[in-house]
Amino acid sequence: MTVDQWQPTACILCECNCGIVVQTEGRAITKIRGDKDHPASAGYTCNKALRLDHYQSSTNRLTSPLRRRSDGSYEEIDWDTAISEIAARFLAVRDAHGGDKIFYYGGGGQGNHLGGAYSGAFLKAIGSRYRSNALAQEKTGEAWVDAHLYGGHTRGEFEHAEVSVFVGKNPWMSQSFPRARVVLNEIAKDPDRAMVVIDPVVTDTAKLADFHLRVRPGTDAWCLAAMAAVLVQEDLCDEEFLATHVNGVEPVRDVLRQVLVGDYAARCGVEETLLRAAVRRIAAADSVAVFEDLGIQQAPNSTLCSYLNKMLWILTGNFAKRGGQHLHSSFAPLFGSGGVGRSPVTGSPVIAGLVPSNAVPQEILTDHPDRFRAMIVESSNPAHSIADSAAVRAALESLELLVVIDVAMTETARLAHYVLPAANQFEKPEATFFNLEFPHNNFHLRHPLFEPLPGSLPEPEIWARLVRALGAVDDAELDPLRRAAREGLDAYAAAFLGAVGANPGLGRVLPYVLYETLGPVLPDGLAGAAALWGLAQKAAMTYPDAVRRAGHADGNALFEAVLAGRSGLTFTAHEYPDDFALISHSDHKIALNMPEMLDALQTLPARPSALTTAEFPMVLSAGERRAYTANDIFRDPTWRKRDTEGALRISVDDAEAVGLVDGDRARLTTAAGNAEVTVEISDAMLPGHVSLPNGFGLDHTDGQGRSVAPGVAPNELTSSQWRDEYAGTPWHKHVPARVDRIRR
Ligand SMILES: Nc1nc2c(c(=O)[nH]1)N[C@H]1C(S)=C(S)[C@@H](COP(=O)(O)OP(=O)(O)OC[C@H]3O[C@@H](n4cnc5c(=O)[nH]c(N)nc54)[C@H](O)[C@@H]3O)O[C@H]1N2
Ligand SMILES: Nc1nc2c(c(=O)[nH]1)N[C@H]1C(S)=C(S)[C@@H](COP(=O)(O)OP(=O)(O)OC[C@H]3O[C@@H](n4cnc5c(=O)[nH]c(N)nc54)[C@H](O)[C@@H]3O)O[C@H]1N2
Ligand code: SF4
Ligand SMILES: [Mo]
């Protein structure tokens, strides 16, 4: 069937989730363009969205639950068998070792968080406690700092900022904020605005910068400390803001006063005059917004760098004003709250509720009595995306039970005892909780474009079947809610409060209760959106004024708007001073003094600023975002129009020293392994620095049954122990390596 009508949905390739409109034919997406009605993207897309049919029409979809045979091959089984066996085997693990030995990884990629919203019911019912996902290999260091400073996640308002600062972030390629390329071009063109980029590579973003601080890889801590020190030493702080809104300023200033700016500039390889000029430009601006990303979050001293870069906007008072940095509302929090716990085996910090990804192999591959025994992986490919793939594979293989929920037979699925085929993101209602904007924050529920591929099920249904199989809920208890749901949302809200009040056990499996009782009355195949009712109520209670200002009278009205708004909607409209109310400390002030970070700062003079060795003299950044990378979402490599091998970028000097010409094959070796790579000589790279893209080395069988796996899987070259001392986040951007010519 051809559907000529343009149907709204969203791109699923990065956290922006730009609104798109599509036409379809049969099960294929045939035409794609930006959706002008989307409140955040307003018609914008990057080059990648137009390639989405390579996801939709992938020839590598799973179409039946699979069970591993003793010889390692898989047999197709029916859903009832799969669900009852999986539930029985998880119950057996719980009875033998405790439910807390069942570990959950994933819960959503760049386009899908609804499945993860339902997993909690099953996990709580079985007594599982520990979980993790990709955020624990990038954002947990920042989350720890954020929790201390103001208790929430911040985003910069780049659209309006006079000065935008990108620290280890290349938004031209990686996007991450609305209409990124448009905004970057606007900044570059406007003589009254400026851009500061801290990156060792001359990226497409750096090319647009007014101040490119080309740090040596891994030396950002010295650069950022020097920048913060200039603010203090040259009296460039916003004293009124600090006096009114910030606690603990003096201990921070005392330490920054001691920083030898010239020495630190030399340590990071940036001209002192350029560094000072960039800081003075920041200090002179009416508004400053800062984005830190993987270039520091996955490099040495990462947590300290997260702390230090925030000085650039806090000491200058660029908060709670147009074009500044903001706390924001969330439709559902991406990060768990609560203090820092510890993982059971390695005692690693559990920040934002997440065990560090890098600790996963050690939490399993040990005879420690508290090791994880069973695992569920949903919408994630840890055997490819976590450091040290060999260790991850060995760990996953040693589990008593591994269940993977995915659309494809991934590197991780191939290690599972059971693989459950999910309907893909255009075959079910979907949404993400990447709602990170201020003052207007948006949420987009996408309606299904297609029926689920035969044999697959949407995750909400998979989780509901698993909860039912546990026998955790007496179904008769749900009948009053089912009846109320048929009467409308007001009756439902009243019945819901009564039911959960009378039986707190239902509260534990809330998403399941909503799916089972409200789901059936939702129109247009939107049963899977039922959990959003609870989130809408919560948003309306947490931000009553901002939700009303956005035009929603209460939680039910917000939920109805979510169901109806095919192109997404604004769910909160804040005013700038609301930023202060969003600070979670009781006095609503920023708490600047973090003793651990100030201690770390004081050890910088003694810390090594290079970690390379004679054996591994180069720094490899393993996992750069490029025009044709999109995590592990596309398995079909023909989606790429360029850079099909995922070339190793190397400087002109290094290529000459090794004896390489463009397009040569070379051997890349690290402490963890080695790989053959195709070389691209690039004047964007500093001598001593090479980079490989992310998302390569995924295998794929094409329509003719041919198997291909172009490029290098970056985590065959990375190590588990190579990680931040506070947050356990990996140093993927800073892997000591060697490049050799291959002689033939
Ligand atoms: N095209 C594309 N876009 C994506 C994704 C994708 O796969 N492809 N993935 C999405 C995801 S999950 C994420 S988390 C974001 C990540 O987005 P980014 O963090 O922007 O992506 P990267 O290219 O990995 O790293 C950013 C920059 O860090 C620089 N860098 C390397 N070493 C250092 C260093 O020592 N110091 C500094 N200051 N910089 C350094 C690199 O040169 C690079 O320009 O992208 C999102 N967007
Ligand atoms: N060396 C190195 N490693 C890295 C990085 C790096 O820069 N360098 N980057 C890290 C970062 S920032 C991130 S975010 C992670 C990302 O790594 P992962 O957490 O593994 O996430 P994705 O690549 O998004 O994987 C998405 C998975 O979801 C599946 N999928 C797609 N649609 C659906 C669906 O509808 N339902 C289900 N159930 N599954 C679906 C896909 O087939 C795929 O297996 O990688 C990290 N790993
Ligand atoms: S910016 Fe992100 S969400 Fe938007 S089109 Fe590009 S990849 Fe898709
Ligand atoms: Mo990421």
TrEMBL record:
Keyword field contains 4Fe-4S: yes
Top-level taxon of origin: Bacteria
Residues in 4Fe-4S Mo/W bis-MGD-type domain copies: 4-60
Keywords assigned: 4Fe-4S, Iron, Iron-sulfur, Metal-binding, Oxidoreductase
SUPFAM superfamilies in the record: ADC-like, Formate dehydrogenase/DMSO reductase, domains 1-3
Documented EC number(s): 1.17.1.9
Ligase in keyword set: no
Molecular function as annotated in GO: formate dehydrogenase (NAD+) activity
Family annotation (Pfam families): Molybdop_Fe4S4 (PF04879), Molybdopterin (PF00384), Molydop_binding (PF01568)
UniProt-recorded name of the protein: Formate dehydrogenase
